[in-house]
Structure formats: structure tokens, C-alpha cells
Records
---
Amino acid sequence: MKKLRREIIELLKAGNCTPRISTIASKLHSRSSTIHYNIKQLEKESAIRSYRAVFDYKKIDEGFCSFVLISLASGSYKDPDKIAEILSKYPQVESVDIITGRWELIIKVRTANMDEYYEFAKNLVAIGGVDKTETLNSIRQVKSEFTRAIN
Amino acid sequence: MKKLRREIIELLKAGNCTPRISTIASKLHSRSSTIHYNIKQLEKESAIRSYRAVFDYKKIDEGFCSFVLISLASGSYKDPDKIAEILSKYPQVESVDIITGRWELIIKVRTANMDEYYEFAKNLVAIGGVDKTETLNSIRQVKSEFTRAIN
DNA sequence: TTAAAAGTTTGAATATAATTCAAATCATGA
DNA sequence: TCATGATTTGAATTATATTCAAACTTTTAA
């Protein structure tokens, strides 16, 4: 992919988008200035965090998606936050949740392919405090947090 | 929450946003018309699917988040796609992935609170073909799809 | 119950930004 | 090298966001 396109994608992932006030206004049969005011309020109370693009990940070389369940070694058991912080730093890691039950963490990872995933996974074991992991590879994303698949 | 705000949020979840071309142009030391052209290309090849808002889910009454691992009864085992389709329809279901391993599906569910989650979970067992489920409740989202706040 | 305050809507004016397009430039492969 | 398609550019145009004071509505507290 062209360098410029990749750079644009990275900026669109991080935000750099904005609401279509007039479109929303007409869909809700309201005035632009009203919608503008209400959106600014939602932003002010941080209910809206940002605006970003949604991608077809296969088309931007991030087609391989896995969920990794992680249980921590007893030493760091008391502080899953720290491990979570470390994991959050990786660009391949889309989400990190601390959870109840048999596992302490679940992370969602996106890479171009299995090889790249394997490269990433090596980091996981290298992080001290990680005891066991179980990887669930997504073979089809039927719905993602952003949009439904159009088959 | 005000009805209008809720309606705005629903529209912002579904899209109704647009890239900030001039911001991107200046960040990349490029011209607006160049960025415009390249973004249109990305849209044309469907690499970009849409633009939408990212929320602080606690602030929009969707603060309770769970991952549900699902294994299917042997009858429908051959067609997890169908169950996945059904699950995708629920607005509480943020993502549906068909996965490899001990489970067939993993879904991410957002509700206002545990009670609402329980109401939703009753639907799960009612769907024929679902054998076992295991729920992982997120007690803290350390990282989610968003990374940056509003400019 | 009522008056004041706080919050919201409105329309018109203004400021910004997106879009268009033809010409120029660049990249590619025959 | 030439020819073709892809990309970039700048200027002109169009569309949209933003601002703001006034009107209106809802909430608060006395």
C-alpha cells in the first residue's frame, strides 16, 4: 500500500473525523444549530470520546484477528492493571479487558496474518507475570464493534 | 437522557461522520485535494467502511460489558453462521466472531447493568442450537477501540 | 406556587472546509 | 522511449460548521 494511504489510515484510526451535523439534523427533523449544540454538550461531558473511521480490516492488512485469554501468575495476581497497561501499548492490541472468572484478562489482537500473530505472541510470554494463555482465533467476523459484515 | 441526545448517539454509532480532510492534510504536509482524492479511493475500494463516533460507554448507559463464549449443540454445529446471524441482530451485541477451538463463537455484549445483561442472557438460552455458554464479565476496560479524545 | 436560574432552541451572519475539475506531474510497463 | 493510467495541484465553487443574541422551555429552590 502507498505510504500516504497508510498514513491517512493511521490518522483515521486515531480520530480526525467529525460528525455530519447537517445530515443528522435533517434525519432528526431538527436544526443544525440545535444538533451542533447537543453534540458539543455530549463532547463536553465526554460521552463522545472521538470520531474515527471503520475499516475492512482484510483490506488494510489486518485481517487476522484473535482473542487471547490470559491468566496471571500468582505473584502479579493482585495487579492485573499493570500487565493490562503493558499490553495496551502494543498497536496490534485493539482492546484489553480485566475480567471475572477463570482468566484475568481478555485481549483482542489484530495482525496481518498468522505469522505476524506468532511474532506478537512471543512478546506475551516474555512479559513476566503471565501464567497461561489460550488463543481463540477468529475465522469470521460476523459483526464487529463498528459495523455488521455485508457478507 | 434526553430523547434528542439518544437519537443523536444512535446516528453517530451507525455512521453519519466524515473525515477531517484539512486537518489530515496539514498533519501530513499535503494538500486537501490530494487527501480528498486518496480518501475517496480508499472508500471506493471499501477499505474504509464508514466513519462513526466512539463513546464512553459508562456515560451512555452501556457500562456493563461481557464476553460470552458459546458452544453449539451438535445439530447446528455445522452452521454457526446461522446462530451468528441471529445474535448479530441484537443491539446489545457489539461483536460476533466465529472462532477455532473449544468454543464456536465469542460475542461481546453491552448493557446498562447486570440486570439488563441477565434479561439479554435469557434470549441466549432460548435460541435453539446453543449448548453451553461461559460469560466473562469485564470489570475494567483498559483499552478499547478508541485511543484519543477530541481535538 | 412562583420567580429566578439554568438549559435549550432558533435563525441569520460569518467563518471554514469540502468538493470539483482541468492541467500538470509522476509512475509503469510495453 | 513512449503511451497510458494514476496522482497531485491550485483556484473556483459549493456546502457545511460555527457563532451568537434572543426567544423559549425546564428545573430549582424558596
---
Amino acid sequence: MGRAPCCEKSGLKKGPWTPEEDEKLVAYIKEHGQGNWRTLPKNAGLSRCGKSCRLRWTNYLRPDIKRGRFSFEEEEAIIQLHSILGNKWSAIAARLPGRTDNEIKNYWNTHIRKRLLRMGIDPVTHVPRLDLLDLSSLLKPAAAYYPTQADLDTLRALEPLAGYPDLLRLASTFLPAATTGAAAEQAQLLLPWLLQAQMAQQAAATMAQQQVTPPPPQAAAGEQFLQASTAACQMPGLVHASPTQQQLAQHPQDHMAATCHGAVQPTSYDNQLDYVPALMQMAPSDASNLQQWSSTVSSSNNNNYNVNSGVSTPSSSPAAAGQMNSSSTTTTTYGLNARGDVVITADDDAAGLLNMHLSELLDVSDYM
DNA sequence: AACGGAACCAACCGCTGTTCA
DNA sequence: GTGAACAGCGGTTGGTTCCGT
């Protein structure tokens, strides 16, 4: 025998709450405290379902709710926490005093998500995506209005990549930080390398298909996320503890969110150029630790390549999980070894064919 | 001023894990 | 042990407001 029904399903009021109803609910909870939502509506004289009362209280009437516009620090924390936790709105809300999960969810969907898309950043994976972004926005903002000859050269150099969306994404992780001086020159050097890598990967994928080998076992998406997050957090030079993060770090369960700050998000998002990938923020002295980082390029059967940069990917995101698990033919890792060399590794039967050390082409330390 | 589309957000829906009779 | 209700959560809806034409 189970419990008695909580309430009659019919005859209960739905829709927006009136001030009178709010008053009744607040008065009752002030006197009796919250809890036992089943009997609360009847005792408080409300023609509402207990669930509706609970939602109204927790999302709107609770005295500790902070209303009004989100501050910059709150917005920053939301983006960062979302990059770690995914759509775990309650978990995010627990780290933002006075904000409800519903409010954060609404704010994400109506403000932050759209802005990230405008910036060319996938709001699910937090990875820069050039298919969401105009090529011209890779350049520094002023270039969009007054392009220099170098800017135009960069655009021309990018043109051959137009048919390779994932290489464009990879390029986007390098180019924004390399707008001046030697770094810009090195970025130009990167472009032919990207094309070379693309062709080599296609050749390896073709060979792998001809050998008709089963796809390599894939780690669970959550496991991959934890590994990626851990690796990101272990990278020196990535810790960027703003006051918000220091507050978060007071709670052990927030350790990852706090220490990963620099690896995941910079402090400002008004400009996509501020969204510098973790790699760009590293000091040259950290090069010895680079073996812990890699960018993964996974190829699917239809040759639609996916690039995950060094930023962490939420495990709870179905899209992200799908992206990880959809790889079937060849998984190629774009990484950096202990010397700071760019290394491409295909972890299937063709792996041996595709280990390229690129220190001759590109001095990666200039980007760190 | 009127209209239509976009943006916003409170509230609901449906699912899942937990609690309890 | 069982099953129904509870509590909590994320996704979605629909009413309202804003804004451009």
C-alpha cells in the first residue's frame, strides 16, 4: 500500500500566480515553514497543486532570492561552470547564491547562449567553431572595418581551408592570439601545415578503411571528460583565480571549477578575441607539461571531422557525448609533446603512418 | 497608432531517483 | 518487498513586453 494521493488533479488553478495567492503562500510558510507540500495548499487556502506551490516558492517567493540583472561576475561564473557542469542548472545555481536554477537556465538560453553563438563559440562544447563565425571575425576587431594588407593576406591564406570546417576551427584556436609580430607570422606558417595535416589524415583514413579493421574502443564520454578536465587542471599557468573563483574554491566540490578557470574561460566575453584558448595562455616554461594536453580530431564515416580543443567538454551534454562517440573510423590526436613539437597521432591501424613532428614548421612556443 | 516578429521569463510538463506506508 | 507519492531536475511552452517598421 502506497501513500495517499497528494492532491486532486482536477479543479486546481493553473497559470500565473496572483498577489493574493503569493501573500497566502508566504504567510503560511513564514508561520509553519516549508515542507509537506502535499498538505500546504489546503492548509494555506490555496487552490493549487503542492508542486506548483513549491515551484512558486523556490523560484520566486523565497526571501533569499536575488532579483534583477545578472552581474558580470555572475555571468562569468555561469559560463565557466557550464563549461564544466553542462546543463546542470541546479548545480550551477548552488554556486550562485540568490539565483535559482530556473533563472540561470532562462538567462543562459536567452542571453549567454546567443552571445556565444555570435562569437563563434559552440555553447554546448565551449569550443570555437568557425562554421558559426565569419572568417573576417578571426581578425582583430578593427580589421573588420579597416583591414590592413596583413589582414587581407590572412584571409586569403584561410581561403583554401573553407572546405575543411574542422581545420578552420583548429585555426581559430591559434589565429586570434596571433595578430601581431612574430606570432602572426607563425600563424601564417600554420595554414599550410593544416592543409598538409588534412591531406595526411584523409590518406590515413582511406587506408584504415581499406584494412577493414574494427573501430578502436571508445572511452565513455564521462571518462573522457574527466580525463580532459583533469589534464586541463594540471596545466600550470592556467589557473586564473578571480575573486569569484576564490569564493567558489572555498567549497571542495568546486575545486575543479575554480582551478580550471583559466583553462576554460578568460575574464571577458565581450569580444571573441578575448576567448583565447588555454594553449595561448601558457608560459614557455610550461612546455614540459604539454604532453598532458591534446586536441582531438575525430573522423566519422562521412569524413565530417570534429575538433575538440584543449577546453573541457561537459559530460552531460548529449551533443558533446555524441560527438565523442560518433567517431568510428579514425581518431587522430593533434597534440604537443614534451619538447613543444606539434604531433599528429592516428590511434588506429594507420597510426604508424601518421606521426608528424612539426617543430621544423612551427615554433609553438611563440604561442604560449 | 497599428501591426508583427523577437525577446523575455514565469510556469508547466514529464522524467527520474528517493522516500515511505 | 512493493508501489505510489514526493522532491528535484531539465526541457518546453505560452503569455507578456519590447522594438522596429
